[in-house]
Every structure is written in structure tokens, then in C-alpha cells.
Amino acid sequence: MSLLVKICGLRKADDVKAAVSAGADAVGFVFAESVRRVSPSEALKLTQYLPKRVRRVAVMRHPTQSEWQDVLETFAPDVLQTDIDDFESLDVPDSVERWPVIREGQAVIESGLPAVFLYEGIRSGAGQAVDWQRAAEIAKRGRMILAGGLGIDNIATAIRTVHPHGVDVSSGVESRPGRKDPGLIRLFIKAARAVEKQA
Hints:
Number of helices: 6
CATH architecture: Alpha-Beta Barrel
Largest sheet: 8 strands, parallel, barrel
Order of helices and strands: EHEHEHEEEHEHEEEH
Structural class: alpha/beta
Helix content: 25-40%
């Protein structure tokens, strides 16, 4: 199975182009409180020429139904990524894939896990790595997209240690908070794909 690579927190057309041309499988747009926040209409504009193979991910955290409805109607994402508990109160059509976020230490880890889930630390976009040894055990139980604290220096070790279904990076490919570096995006994807080929 090929490794899914997601570049998150995109705000500029050049960054989206860099991610797509380097071979990203998914691009994420943040609609939660963040320096990377964009509006649904901005995200739509940034993805108008996106190839069909690249998933457009709406990244939210504890949205109300009306906030989600605005993103759904304006941006029409392929995927909704938000905390696992949020899905209990949101009306998400079957046409939208669900990537529930499970945070390190959450009780849900000990019970049933969803088929696909994103695993990260307590705070999103903070460059906070999880315990990779623990993550490796959890990754055996479902299709984990590993996030948090990943960058060009550690992505190879992270993939070899955790064996995730996918990886997700945001702050690790930035020159400063909220400012993506197209060069780092390309290097990150190249490094991730190099490990994938060795597997």
C-alpha cells in the first residue's frame, strides 16, 4: 500500500502548486483558529485547478454545524478532518470522507478505533511530536495518518518506526509560523517517498 502524504495549513497558490507537483496525495486547509486559517472561499480559489487525484481536506476543530455547513457548501471538500468527538454532532454527507483526529492519551485509543484516523499531540500545528513507539503499536490497529512534529530531518525515522498509512506535515515545512516554504515541501515529500521505495 502506498504512503499517503498530506501537506496541511496551505494559504498560498505557490505552496499548493509545490505540494501537488512534488506528489502530495492530500492538501489541507485550516478553518479553525490558527495563523494558517483561511476562509472557505479562499480554499476554493486555491484548489480550483487541483488534479482529481489530490484530496482536498477541510481541517476543523469543534466546529458548529453551521460553520461546517458553510465549509461544505462553499469549499465542498473531499475530506473532513476534525476531532473524533465532533463527528457525533455533525451532519457529514456520505460523499465526504471522514478523518477523525485522535490525540495522544485519549481514552478512545483503548476502545475501538475508526478504520482511518489522524494521530497527533494535544495541540494541532504546534510541531509537537507524539511517542513514536506507542504510535507504532496503535498503527497496527487501523490506517493511521501520523502528524505532529514531522519535518525533513525526522520523517524517514518516523515512517520506519511507526509504519503509518500516511503522514501529515504543517509547521515542519514552514520558514516561520504560517509561512510555507515550497523548497521544504518538496524535500519533505521526496524524503517520505524515498523511505516508501525502500519498504
